[in-house]
Write a structure and sequence with these properties.
19% strand, binds adenosine-5'-diphosphate
C-alpha cells in the first residue's frame, strides 16, 4: 500500500531532477545559440571586411557558409572597385574632355581635361546643371536644341583662348556624355593655310596683271608700237614672269621642307667648298657693289645636307647684298661656338627695327614690301632658312642696329661637327 505513493514520489523526484536537468540543458543550448546570434548581429553591424567570428557545431557551419559568401562578396567588391578605378583612370587619361551627366544635364563626373576646358570643378560642381556652369549662349542653345548630330565649335567664355569642338552623346535613355576636344591648334593651322593661300594669290596676281596688261597692249596693235617700245614691254613682262618663277621655286622648296620631306641627307659636307660656292654666288649677285669677305675659323667638315645648307647660307648672303648699303662691307664668317658652330653674315645696311625681328622668318613677312619686291625678293627666303636650320637641329639668330646694319647667324649644334679646324683659313 505505501509502496505505490513511495514509488510515485521517487519517480516524481527523478522526473523533477530530469526536468530540471532538461531545463538546464535547454537553457544552455538557448544561451549558446543566443550568444552565437548576438555574435552574428555584432559582426553584421561591424564594418565591412571584419572577419567572421569563430563558432562550433551547427554555428560553425552557418558561420563558415557566411564566411565563404562574405569572401566571395569581398572579392566581387574588390573586382568591381578595381574595374571602376580602371574606368576612372581611363576617363582621366582621355585626350578629350568628358563629362557624364544625368537627367537635366546635371553633372555626375568630369575628367580633368573637361575641368580645364570649361573652367569647372568636378567635385564641387557635381549635381549642378551644366548650363548653370557654362553659360555661353551658343553652348546653352546647343544643349537645349536636342539635335546632337553635328558637333559645336565654341570659344568658352572662361577660357577664351581655346577653341573647342564639343559633341553631346545621349545614352541610357536619360543620360548624356559631353565630349570636348581642343582644336585651337587645328584652327590656327587652318587660319595659317587661309592666309597662305591669300598671300600666294596676292603675290602672283600683281606680276600676272602686269604681264596680261603688256600682252593686251601688244595684241591690240603691235604694228602701231615702235620696235623700241615693243622690246621694252617684252623685257618688263619677262621680269614679272621671272618674279613669278622665283616665287614658285621658293614655294616648292618651302613646301618640300615643310610637308614631310625626309630628314636631310647625313652626308659629310666640306665647309670650305660649300662656303666658297656661296661666296662666288654672292660676288656675282653683287656685281662689284659690295666688298664681300669670307673667314673660315670653325670646323672643316660637318654632317648634314649640303644642298639645304647651301640654299640657307646663300639666302642670307643674298639678303645682305639686297638690303646692304652699296659700297658697304659684307663679312661672312664660319666659326666654332661653345656649343657647335655658326655661319654669320654681317652687312652695313639699313638695319631692322627690333619689333620686326621676331617675325622675319614668317612666310611673306617683309619690313619694306616695296624694297623686297624691287630687289627680287619673294618674302620666303628666311622662312626657308629657318626650316633648313630646324631640320639640322640648328637655329637662326638675328642682331640688328637701325642705320648701322645686321648680323644673321645660322647656328648648328655640336652633334653636326665631324672634324675641327686645325688652322684658320681666310
Ligand atoms: P625677301 O625675299 O623679302 O628678302 P626674306 O624672307 O629673305 O624675304 O626676308 C624677309 C624680310 O626681312 C625682308 O623683306 C627684309 O625686310 C628683311 N631682311 C632680311 N634680311 C635683311 C637684311 N640683311 N637687312 C635688312 N633687312 C633684312
Amino acid at each position: 500500500m505505501w509502496l505505490l505513493p513511495g514509488a510515485l514520489i521517487a519517480l516524481l523526484g527523478d522526473l523533477a531532477w530530469g526536468l530540471a536537468a532538461m531545463l538546464a540543458g535547454a537553457l544552455y543550448v538557448i544561451s549558446t545559440h543566443l550568444r552565437q546570434i548576438s555574435n552574428l548581429v555584432e559582426w553584421a553591424r561591424a564594418p565591412i571586411g571584419t572577419p567572421v567570428p569563430i563558432a562550433s557545431g551547427v554555428w560553425d557551419l552557418v558561420f563558415s557558409e557566411i564566411n565563404r559568401r562574405s569572401r566571395l562578396m569581398k572579392d566581387q567588391r574588390e573586382r568591381l572597385s578595381a574595374a571602376l578605378d580602371r574606368f576612372v583612370e581611363a576617363g582621366q587619361a582621355m585626350p578629350d574632355g568628358v563629362i557624364y551627366m544625368g537627367p537635366g544635364h546635371v553633372v555626375d563626373w568630369a575628367n580633368q581635361r573637361a575641368e580645364s576646358h570649361f573652367g569647372i570643378d568636378a567635385q564641387r560642381d557635381a549635381g549642378a546643371p551644366l548650363i548653370n556652369l557654362v553659360r555661353d549662349p551658343a553652348f546653352v542653345a546647343y544643349l537645349d536644341s536636342g539635335d546632337f548630330g553635328e558637333p559645336l565649335v565654341m570659344k568658352p567664355l572662361r577660357q577664351h583662348r581655346l577653341t573647342l569642338l564639343v559633341q553631346l552623346v545621349p545614352y541610357a535613355e536619360t543620360r548624356t556624355m559631353l565630349i570636348s576636344r581642343d582644336i585651337t591648334h587645328l584652327e590656327r593651322l587652318e587660319t595659317m593655310r587661309r592666309d597662305f593661300v591669300a598671300n600666294v594669290s596676292h603675290e602672283l596676281r600683281t606680276p600676272l596683271t602686269v604681264v596680261l596688261g603688256f600682252l593686251e597692249t601688244l595684241a591690240d596693235g603691235v604694228d602701231d608700237l615702235p620696235a623700241e617700245d615693243q622690246l621694252h614691254y617684252v623685257r618688263l613682262a619677262r621680269e614679272q614672269a621671272e618674279r613669278m618663277h622665283r616665287l614658285i621655286l621658293d614655294l616648292l622648296v618651302l613646301s618640300a621642307l615643310e610637308t614631310g620631306a625626309p630628314a636631310p641627307a647625313e652626308e659629310e659636307v666640306d665647309v670650305a667648298t660649300l662656303l666658297d660656292a656661296v661666296l662666288r654666288e654672292g660676288l656675282a649677285l653683287s656685281s662689284g657693289r659690295h666688298r664681300i669677305t669670307l673667314e673660315i675659323e670653325g670646323p672643316l667638315v660637318i654632317r648634314g645636307s649640303s644642298k639645304e645648307l647651301h640654299s640657307a647660307f646663300a639666302n642670307l648672303v643674298s639678303n645682305a647684298i639686297r638690303y646692304g648699303r652699296a659700297g658697304g662691307h659684307i663679312r661672312l664668317r664660319w666659326q666654332a661656338t661653345g656649343d657647335g658652330c655658326a655661319f654669320s653674315v654681317q652687312d652695313q645696311g639699313e638695319g631692322i627695327e627690333a619689333q620686326h625681328i621676331p617675325r622675319l622668318t614668317e612666310r611673306f613677312y617683309r619690313v619694306d614690301r616695296g624694297r623686297s619686291r624691287e630687289s627680287g625678293g619673294t618674302g620666303l627666303g628666311l622662312a626657308i632658312v629657318k626650316h633648313v636650320l630646324g631640320r639640322h637641329q640648328g637655329s637662326l639668330e638675328i642682331e640688328s642696329v637701325l642705320g648701322e646694319g645686321s648680323v644673321f647667324r645660322a647656328r648648328l649644334p655640336a652633334q653636326r661637327l665631324v672634324r675641327q679646324a686645325t688652322d684658320a683659313a681666310a
